[in-house]
Each structure stands twice: as structure tokens, then as C-alpha cells.
Specification:
Elements lengths: L1 E6 L2 E4 L4 E9 L8 E7 L5 E7 L6 E3 L7 E6 L4 E6 L8 E8 L14 E2 L3 E6 L1
Parallel strand pairs: 2-11
Antiparallel strand pairs: 1-3, 3-8, 4-5, 4-9, 5-6, 7-8, 9-10, 9-11
């Protein structure tokens, strides 16, 4: 069983920065076995892939809309994945969710490949 808790959301002006955290509690497999992904959903829109990371920072992937602005990292000692968001835009406004998978799938941008999800944290970027 895996529990994920997101934090760090809030209201920020365009051009500003936020750092989201996804803290994981596991019973069974160690946190290091899980790839963690971030998705977001804006009102009236589909879920959008943001970023994902495997057990080490050496293997990361980003959605096209956030490349060059967002950075994902993880601290395995703290069971936490971070999403550093810079140069935020109003179109980044959404609820951000983190998900976890231990399946080893190469397709971390496919939402159906994740087994566990957090409750989400709201990010609002004002213009």
C-alpha cells in the first residue's frame, strides 16, 4: 500500500516560482522502487502529464509545456519528490497530483500506468 501527500501549492504571480512536494508512505516495497509522476488538471480540461522521475535524478521526463521551466527531483532518504516550478504562467493554473508506480513501465507519461495517487494541491498563477 502506498499513500501520497502533495503540498506546496498556492497563489503566485506570473513569472514567479513554487516548489511542490510529494511525500510517500509505503508498506511493503521501499520508496526507491517507485517511479513518481506529476500530472495536473485545469478546470474543464483533461489531465495533463507534467513530469516523472525514476529512482534516481538521472532518469527524468517532462511534458512539452513545462520543459525548461520545471525541474523534478527526489530525496529517497525523505521519501519525497519535488517539482520546482519557475517562470510560472496563468496557464499553469491547475490541481497538481502525484502518482506512483512500481511496474517498471517505460511509459511514465501514460496516466493509466500509475497505481497510486495523492489528493492534489492547487496551484493558481495570476496574470
Amino acid at each position: 500500500q502506498v499513500q501520497l501527500v502533495e503540498s506546496g501549492g498556492g497563489l503566485v504571480q506570473a513569472g514567479g516560482s513554487l516548489r511542490l512536494s510529494c511525500t510517500c508512505t509505503t508498506s511493503g516495497r521501499a520508496f526507491i522502487n517507485y517511479a513518481i509522476g506529476w500530472y495536473r488538471q485545469a478546470p474543464g480540461k483533461e489531465h495533463e502529464f507534467v513530469s516523472a522521475i525514476r529512482w534516481t535524478d538521472l532518469e527524468t521526463v517532462y511534458g512539452d509545456s513545462v520543459k525548461g521551466r520545471f525541474t523534478i527531483s527526489r530525496d529517497n532518504a525523505k521519501n519525497t519528490v519535488y517539482l520546482e516550478m519557475n517562470s510560472l504562467r496563468p496557464e499553469d493554473t491547475a490541481v497538481y497530483y502525484c502518482g506512483a508506480t512500481a511496474s517498471g513501465t517505460p511509459l511514465l507519461s501514460v496516466r493509466d500506468n500509475y497505481d497510486y495517487w495523492g489528493q492534489g494541491t492547487q496551484v493558481t498563477v495570476s496574470s
